[in-house]
Specification:
27% strand, disordered N terminus, 7 helices, four-stranded antiparallel beta sheet, nine-stranded mixed beta sheet, alpha+beta
Amino acid sequence: MRGSNGGPVGERRTLPVPDGLDGMRMDQAVSRLFGLSRTAAAAIVEAGDAIVDGRSASKSEKVTAGAWLDITLPPPPGAAPAVEPEEVEGLRVVYSDRDIVVVDKPVGVAAHPSPGWTGPTVLSGLAALGQTVSTSGAAERQGVVHRLDVGTTGLMVVAKSETAYSALKRAFRDREVDKRYHAVVQGQLDPLRGTIDAPIDRHPTADYKWAVVSGGRPSVTHYETIEAFPSGSLVDVRLETGRTHQIRVHFSALRHPCVGDLTYGADPKLAARLGLDRQWLHARALSFVHPGTGAAVAFESPYPDDLAHALAVLRAAA
């Protein structure tokens, strides 16, 4: 079977446009909904594989909340994408030795290659910098012991030796790694300091995102307010578990989504006022026992320019 572009038909998805994407360009909306690059999303629309309420869409038209999208995704490749060296703008090596490399990941960069993602990755950037990583793990994610979302910036550690890979995987599993995130969430939290203990699983009606779901995987997030503003709060977040989108899902469930996180219900007007086109979420600090030396190591990352600007606007308004 072949699609309208002459190629084989891939997976077909039918779903309503979420409220948070109302007014967004079609190619950008498809990109957000399915975790694709903007280029890949535009190719789907231009090929006639994006249907809105029964008609073909154009990539520049604006989507309307509640409209039904019928999307045919490209078929997955037969094998995992290879890691090809690629210079990644903004990717910074914070620390490197024979066992580990700690990087400061910029926005718009995935941790590793995956089906449907054609953008830059941490592994491709490290390869371009001449950094060799562990061969442990799946072919497309060798050396990767934890991940950050494409739209989340900050610190990641990648294993370079096989012993480091095993030790770090165990340390993350046993919750011996201290991961600190800073987030700006909408409104003021009450209490100012607390714990969110709520199970997370796939969203029951929107499989492109996650949700607090009865019977989901146990998920625990600790938070403390650092600074409060009229329209938001800067919070320090510590994860006890590491579920996909955990911070974003938990604060959305409290009705305090991360500012700029349109996927999880953030106010698009506030995001526009702050100049944000992604969630205000940054992996601020990372500490663990070095797998080679046994010494405690700690790293910290400054806010990137877009998050620093948004925070400055909030402070000025206060």
